[in-house]
Amino acid sequence: MDADDRTSQADDGLPLRVVQRAPNGTAPSRQTRRGRGIAFGLTALSLTLIVVIWLNHPTPDIAAPRLASGNAVSQASPGIVLGLGKLLPRGRILTIAPPFGAGDARIAELLVQEGETVRQGSILAVLDSAPSLRAALAVAEASVGAREAALAQTILTVTAGRDDARGALARADAAVRSTRRDLDRAATLSTRGDITDQILDQRRLAYEQAQQDAARARAALARYDASDIAAQADVALAQANIDAARAERERARAEVDKSLIKAPARGSVLTLHARPGERPGALGLLTFGDLDDMTAEIEIYENEATAIAPGSIVALAADALPSPLAGTVRRVGVEVLRQTLTDASPAANTDTRVIRVSVDLDAASAAIAARFANLQVTARFPRTALR
Question: What's this model's pTM, rounded to 2 decimal places?
Answer without folding.
Answer: 0.58
